Amino acid sequence: MNSDKKKQLDRITTSGDNEVSAYLEIASSKQTEQINLDVPNSPETIIVIDYGSQYSMLITRRIRESDIYSELISWDSDFDKISHLNIKGFILSGGPDSVSNDDSPTLPNFVLESNLPVLGICYGMQLLAKTFGGEVLKSTSSEYGQSLLTLGSEPCKLLDNLPSKFSVWMSHGDSVKSLPQDFKLDAFSESAPIAIMSDINNKFFGIQFHPEVIHTQNGDQIIKNFTVNIAGCLQNWTASSFVDEAISAIQNEVGSKQVICALSGGVDSAVAATLVHRAIGDQLTCIFVNNGLLRKDEANRVIETFNNNIGIKLLDIDAADEFIDKLRGTTDPEKKRMIIGEAFIRVFEKKAKELGEIDFIVQGTTYPDVIESETKGTASAKIKTHHNVGGLPPDMEFSLIEPLRNLFKDEVRKVGTELGLPSEIVFRQPFPGPGLAIRIMGEVTKDKLNILRAADWIVMDEIKKANTYYDLWQSFAILTNNMTVGVQGDQRTYGHCIAIRCVSADDAMTADWAKLPYDLLAKISSRIVNEVPEVNRVVYDITSKPPGTIEWE
Question: For residue 517, is the peptide bond before it cis, meaning its omega torsion is within 30 degrees of 0?
Fold first, then answer.
């Protein structure tokens, strides 16, 4: 790095780590400890620095899809958070801020001090430009949407194997107006005279558009050029390699101690339990708690499935009355989650005392759980406390094992397949840990639970009959807090309103409402109002995520 850049680097300051998720508060308590599942031979990693873009998580996913490990961290995180990783390069995401603002997010010192390749996307490009003396100004005409990119006569290595012109997705108000020292122009568009820039000697690259979205042609090739050709990643992070590394890490951490697992019947807890069982065998005891918040016949199906298919020691506990009792009078969804999370732990602690000394508890926490529950600096905000992350009491007596904590749902499914789990478990639609409690608006009662179970059963039955189940990420019913007037059997009724939610998605971070056939929706609606006497109205939720979330609470 030249002396001018070194002087500029010395002036860069970053704030401390401001992430204050409920999970981290728990993990730092005296009696609760999150165990480290990282292994000495950590996989080659590309770190994505999050500046608040709606596409930040998508960059991470695109990298992982090419069998390269990647993690997303906030721009104001401490290096200690990632120091254990074998980092090969950094990608700076886009974001809503302007680098011209005094309080805008900055470049972490550790990124530039690493001497590793850096790719800045949109805001990330502008940040590189400003840091090294370029000029960034408000564009005279902003670019949003498709734009034609034209490569220069001698494009950099980032653009290997690409055509001279192709369509890209722009979304920016600011633009780089003059190149920093030692950078050269590699491509331009009609409204962005500097659309790609590079400093080959220091391996700094900036692109104004978003290669991670499907609207950008050749976006995958650009990301591959950076991660493989420039950063030198070997593309060897696979489900098989993850299983081997996780098993080794679990064995090293647990030793000969005893472990229990909160088994819900969903894919996350099933894969987590199977992975831990593969590592330590009969040291693991799984506990299935019927919290009274499950769907129709759910408890029987879970017990039968796991006893017959997986061969793990399984204890079942009926605590339905206890959970419903604790939820009485509670309407706030965050309080519901916390009540349910604490009740789960108390049940486990009681059972653990009967089993003898238990040191660890397994949870099927996944990456979207963590990201949605964290509050990351000023760039993005916490969405909700996730049951697997923030619903545990601070005085919990177990240490956590979360072997899937850094995986997306599709990656969890790949691991489940690698472990030999049956497809009906691996490809089961997600079901929230708090269960029907967060699909009932307002107070949870036995009567409301029975109404929702009946309606939800009909939704699932018709979805499966239509051979649509595996095409959807989730499909379920919600019992709203609204009563509506109806006419049934020539009589006026005043009944409950059921909402139907069906979404398609690649993971839980974004989702689109499912465009189901009208005749299927009509059949669902007709069956619910005819077979569930307390309901006289059915509505269909056509909100995508964002702006909505998949669950209503």
Answer: no
The letter for the amino acid at 267 is: V
Tell me the chain's radius of gyration from C-alpha atoms: 25
Q: Is pLDDT above 80 for 113?
A: yes
Same domain, 162 and 278: no
Domain residues for 457? 439-540
DSSP for 469-507 reads GGG-SEEEEEEEEEEEEEEETTEEEEEEEEEEEEEE-SS
In angstroms, how far is CA 363 from the centroid of its own chain?
15
Identified catalytic residue from 19, 122, 418, 502? 122
Catalytic residue among 19, 156, 172, 210: 210
The residue written with tokens 């974001």 in the block is 95
Structurally, the chain folds into a number of domains equal to: 3
User: Is 26 inside any structural domain?
Assistant: no
Task: Reply yes or no on whether the pLDDT at 366 is more than 70.
Answer: yes
210 is catalytic: yes
212 is known as an active-site residue: yes
Q: Which of 44, 143, 212, 374 is catalytic?
A: 212
Mean pLDDT, the chain, as a whole number?
84
Question: 372 and 504 share a domain?
Answer: no
What is the pTM (predicted TM-score) of this model? 0.73
Q: pLDDT value at position 276? A: 95
Q: Does residue 122 carry a catalytic annotation?
A: yes
Domain assignment present for residue 550? The answer is: no
Neighbours of 236 (CB within 10 A): 12
pLDDT digits (tens, 9 = 90+) for 188-217: 988 788 999 999 999 999 999 999 988 899
Q: What are 484-538's pLDDT values in tens digits?
A: 999 887 788 899 999 999 999 876 667 899 999 999 999 999 999 999 999 999 9
**24 Cβ partners below 8 Å, 6+ apart?**
374
Report the Cα 434 to chain-centroid distance in Å. Answer: 17
